[in-house]
Amino acid sequence: MIKVGDTLPAATLMEFSEVEGNGCSMGPNPVDVTKAAAGKTIALFGLPGAYTPTCSAKHVPGYVEKFDELKAAGVDEIWCVSVNDAFVMGAWARDQKTGTKVRMLADGSADFAKATGLTLDLTARGMGLRSNRYSMLVKDGKVAALNVEGPGKFEVSDAATLLAQARG
Q1: CATH number of the domain residue 79 falls in
Q2: Mean of per-residue pLDDT scores for the chain
Q3: Is 55 annotated in the active site?
Q4: Is residue 157 part of a domain?
Q5: What is the pLDDT of residues 125-153, one digit of tens each?
Q6: Which of 42, 55, 83, 148 is catalytic?
Q7: Which residues contact 154 (CB under 8 A, 6 or more apart)?
């Protein structure tokens, strides 16, 4: 499993944008993790799935609410990564009103989750291989803080915890 001090794995996530701009088409567009993280401080959080109860009611809304505070603490971008396709992540972004605050990044084949070792096997529940629930503070592509949840928990990957770590 990835740990503090490690570099994010080379992977490509997918992002669906509602509008064209900044040289990007509506998408889905590939996001090279290594290039996108270079020179930035990123509040990255992973979760099992779009539209799932805890993810929709608590996890994503917390990061949207703490956006200004995270920016003030030196965070350049907030990334939400989930094992869903880019179209689902785009629709969920609309539903969650993430706007330009949280980048909703699809890990459709769980390649990023597998490369970080942060997978969660929900095959018995009909969901297949998913991402564990976690958050990490990433500085210039390296993990500065990592908070991995225990099974069925939502205690350490919330926005308030990562904000405290960003404030250092």
Answers
A1: 3.40.30.10
A2: 93
A3: yes
A4: yes
A5: 888 899 999 999 999 999 999 999 998 89
A6: 55
A7: 54, 58, 59, 133
27 φψ region: left (φ > 0), alpha (ψ -120 to 50), beta (else): left
For residue 83, the enclosing domain spans 12-167
Do residues 113 and 83 touch, judged by C-beta distance below 8 A? yes
Report yes or no on 146 lying in a domain.
yes
pLDDT tens figures, 74-90 = 999 999 999 999 999 99
pLDDT at 167 over 80: yes
The tally of domains found in the chain comes to 1
Question: Burial of 147 by CB count in 10 Å (0-12 exposed, 13-18 middle, 19+ buried)?
Answer: middle
User: Average pLDDT, stretch 33-52?
Assistant: 96
Joined tokens for residue 63: 């990061």
